[in-house]
């Protein structure tokens, strides 16, 4: 068997000899020696010597080596949040460039992350990547960063599909998990020799979502869709995992030796005022078409009057309810006031997370009333506004009030304090939030605050769920797929069902304990498999 | 290249190209560029286009480069991997791409013939199962076609000059450089094929394995499916099929004395 030997370049140079000036011996020798420096060696990462200021952590180095040497440049990078997927992708890109294999690169990221990618590629990796500008056509860029939302639109999509890229990088690739979406169809059509999909949540809900991601990265690895589905039914979760691992790198925080700052977790307890408690109780008794509504309204009311009020106003059968009047008369919200006190006590920058945009607005107004400089951040903001808000937070403001949507991928290591104004019901969401500040590079202790209203849904969730969070250590990103392998709903849906259907706290507690033990035993099984495989 | 070597390297680079060195301390170098260096390094084509059109002198820039930690001065930090250093490398590699040189026989008093060697320094890049570069230097004596591997390493300590030394004369070549390239690629290809059997076998094994997996996808109903199949095949071929690319680094004509030529053709 013979390789294809291509000597075209020699003939090309020889036919243009007359265009070259004769160099002196010294320069000739130097040119030769410099070329020797740039020769790459088969079992070595050659890019690292070009990046003297970058210190790869062991798991990052391992990931890069796996992708380059074993996966031959096509992979899903699925490290848990905060472990440095962007760094891994940057080194892989750099390595492929230095090896002379990659010149044309398309990087698709959420629009909020474009600037961050651009500056990271340029300053950390000295890779001249540019954000797509509307005045220039795609063809002029060698390495271009864009949002998938822009790229998939015409006329961009057709232009991009025509081009042949050497490397395609898609960040937050869980946005591609659904094969019927335009996102997926578009990315699938892009022609690229090498390919990296980055996601912290590779299989959020159903195991066959990974099938579609894998089809882009390594078509055929999981076989035909029908065959794969049957395989999933017959074989265990772990057999599929083993197969997937051939083209997926995944480090978990719990596996990675922890040179990290520690987390200090504090729970701040607040009581509703009498009037507020009255409204809350009334909400419990409220006649609604569905029990779920009571639950939702109670949760909202635990966050702010506004959140609950707006959602009642939207519903035909509730908008005339007497409770609305009661809410209107409330002067403020005990939890928000307590939060203001807490912020004042913290002599440093703080991030507040809330689930509701109306609470976000209220908190911002309240901060202003209290003379605290605060900026909002949510998924609806335009790219430039997001950038600006972050800059304000870093340089001027004390507080960033964020919603979960829009905060993904943010790197806010300069902040050490986080207040969970509402408690998310999915531990993964909580982890995503904390990952914004508690990530590699954070050297200080990170302070996490839960603000909880006594005798409410808040407290129930705290007791039922948060005391047992350690169960999830190491599987936080996989809770949902573990559940789905049992045919269960997502974690949040399961919790909602349990709380809604249980007649007593005791009952809810038992049900949640059951749910957790299922996750725990399944995660222990797969840990066991993992170890077998590596030994 | 170590960080400590960078200062000396930069100094030599600018000094060699007649730039005025304004400041030269350990790790700190301030240089007034020449017109040519400014155009090569400073990336301001519009300025120079304007200057040239207007027939002005132009004012080349003064630059300061730092290459040692702790140096207190405003200046650009230069390290291995920094774009500026890469740019300077590129200037050297571009300038040093081709040459015609003569063995330096400075104290020569009698008529001396110089024999033509065509020298190619090549990068051989393997791509497939692994990616690996090799440097190959081949000299061909253009009077009889003798081929010498590792030519550059054998001659790196010699002295060469750009003009024919006094009393020396060039023996005309019998084989043209263009012809010699044909011999050379044939010989090189043979060697590569012989030496890379395990690389080829392993690469083709991987290639076939991926192709077979791809073929298991049966849903090829639409034109889009077909397109996806084709582009996947292409991508697999690009990455895994064993390929060796031979690239020109630098080379040219070297005229050597009979004695030196004999040393090279007889020694092993």
TrEMBL record, chain A:
Residue ranges occupied by any Helicase ATP-binding domain in the UniProt entry: 66-220
SUPFAM superfamilies, per the entry: P-loop containing nucleoside triphosphate hydrolases
Keyword Hydrolase among UniProt keywords: yes
UniProt KW ATP-binding keyword: yes
Gene Ontology terms for molecular function: ATP binding; helicase activity; hydrolase activity
Listed PANTHER family: SNF2/RAD54 HELICASE FAMILY
Helicase C-terminal domain boundaries: 338-499
Protein name from the UniProt record: Helicase
Gene3D superfamilies xrefs: P-loop containing nucleotide triphosphate hydrolases, Tandem AAA-ATPase domain
The entry's keywords: ATP-binding, Helicase, Hydrolase, Nucleotide-binding
Signal peptide feature range: none
Domain of life from the UniProt record: Bacteria
TrEMBL record, chain B:
Organism annotation: Alkalibacillus haloalkaliphilus
Name assigned to this protein: Uncharacterized protein
Superkingdom of origin: Bacteria
InterPro entries: YqhG
């Amino acid at each position: 068997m013979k390789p294809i030997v291509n000597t075209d370049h020699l003939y090309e140079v020889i036919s243009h000899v007359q265009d070259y000036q004769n160099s002196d011996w010294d320069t000739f020798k130097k040119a030769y020696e410099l070329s020797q420096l740039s020769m790459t060696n088969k079992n070595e990462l050659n890019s690292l010597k070009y990046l003297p200021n970058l210190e790869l952590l062991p798991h990052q180095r391992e990931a890069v080596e796996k992708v380059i040497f074993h996966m031959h440049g096509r992979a899903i990078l699925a490290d848990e949040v905060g472990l440095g997927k962007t760094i891994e992708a940057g080194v892989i890109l750099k390595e492929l460039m230095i090896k002379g294999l990659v010149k044309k690169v398309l990087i698709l990221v959420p629009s909020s992350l474009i600037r961050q990618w651009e500056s990271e590629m340029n300053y950390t990796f000295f890779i001249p990547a540019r954000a797509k500008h509307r005045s220039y056509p795609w063809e002029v860029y060698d390495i271009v960063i864009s949002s998938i939302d822009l790229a998939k639109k015409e006329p961009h999509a057709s232009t991009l599909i025509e081009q042949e890229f050497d490397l395609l990088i898609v960040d937050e690739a869980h946005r591609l998990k659904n094969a019927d979406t335009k996102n997926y169809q578009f990315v699938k059509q892009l022609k690229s020799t090498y390919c990296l999909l980055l996601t912290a949540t590779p299989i959020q809900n159903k195991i066959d979502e990974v099938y579609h991601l894998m089809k882009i990265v390594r078509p055929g690895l999981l076989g035909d869709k029908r065959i794969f589905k049957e395989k999933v039914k017959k074989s265990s979760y772990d057999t599929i995992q083993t197969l997937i691992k051939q083209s997926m790198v995944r480090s978990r925080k719990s596996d990675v030796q922890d040179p990290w700052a520690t987390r200090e977790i504090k729970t701040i307890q607040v009581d509703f005022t009498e009037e507020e408690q009255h409204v809350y109780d009334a909400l419990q008794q409220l006649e609604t078409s569905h029990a779920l509504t009571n639950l939702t309204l109670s949760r909202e009311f635990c966050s702010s009057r506004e959140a609950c009020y707006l959602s009642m106003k939207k519903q035909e059968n509730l908008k005339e309810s007497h409770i609305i009047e009661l809410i209107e008369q409330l002067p403020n919200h005990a939890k928000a006031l307590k939060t203001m006190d807490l912020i004042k006590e913290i002599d440093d920058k703080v991030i507040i997370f809330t689930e509701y945009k109306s609470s976000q607005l209220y908190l911002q107004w309240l901060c202003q009333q209290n003379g605290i400089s605060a900026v909002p951040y949510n998924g609806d903001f335009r790219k430039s506004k997001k950038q600006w808000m972050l800059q304000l937070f870093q340089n001027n403001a004390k507080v960033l009030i964020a919603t979960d949507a829009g905060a993904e991928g943010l790197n806010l290591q300069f902040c050490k304090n986080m207040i969970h104004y509402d408690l998310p019901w999915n531990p993964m969401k909580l982890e995503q939030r904390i990952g914004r500040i508690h990530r590699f590079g954070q050297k200080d202790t990170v302070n996490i605050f839960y603000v909880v209203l006594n005798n409410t849904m808040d407290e129930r969730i705290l007791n039922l769920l948060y005391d047992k969070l350690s169960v999830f250590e190491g599987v936080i990103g996989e809770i949902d797929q573990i559940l789905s392998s049992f045919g269960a709903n997502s974690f949040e849906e399961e919790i909602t069902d349990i709380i809604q259907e249980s007649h007593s706290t005791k009952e809810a507690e038992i049900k949640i304990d059951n749910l957790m033990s299922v996750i725990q035993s399944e995660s222990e099984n797969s840990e066991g498999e993992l170890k077998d495989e590596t030994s | 290249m170590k960080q400590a070597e960078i200062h000396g390297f930069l100094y030599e680079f600018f000094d060699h190209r007649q730039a005025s060195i304004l400041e030269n301390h350990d790790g700190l170098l301030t240089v007034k560029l020449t017109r040519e260096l400014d155009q090569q390094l400073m990336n301001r084509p519009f300025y120079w286009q304007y200057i040239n059109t207007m027939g002005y002198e132009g004012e080349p820039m003064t630059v300061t480069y730092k290459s040692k930690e702790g140096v207190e001065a405003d200046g650009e930090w230069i390290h291995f991997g920094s774009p500026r250093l890469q740019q300077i490398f590129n200037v050297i590699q571009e300038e040093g791409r081709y040459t015609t040189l003569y063995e330096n026989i400075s104290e020569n008093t009698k008529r001396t013939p110089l024999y033509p060697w065509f020298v190619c320094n090549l990068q051989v890049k393997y791509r497939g199962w692994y990616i690996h570069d090799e440097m190959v230097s081949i000299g061909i004596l253009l009077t009889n076609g003798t081929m010498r591997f590792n030519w550059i390493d054998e001659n790196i300590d010699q002295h060469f000059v750009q003009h024919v030394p006094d009393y020396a004369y060039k023996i005309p070549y019998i084989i043209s450089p263009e012809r010699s390239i044909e011999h050379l690629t044939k010989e090189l290809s043979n060697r590569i094929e012989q030496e890379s059997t395990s690389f080829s076998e392993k690469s083709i094994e991987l290639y076939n394995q991926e192709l077979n997996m791809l073929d298991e996808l049966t849903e090829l109903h639409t034109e889009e499916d077909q397109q996806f199949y084709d582009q996947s095949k292409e991508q697999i071929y690009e990455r895994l099929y064993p390929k060796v690319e031979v690239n020109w680094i630098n080379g040219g004509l070297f005229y050597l004395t009979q004695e030196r030529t004999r040393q090279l053709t007889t020694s092993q």
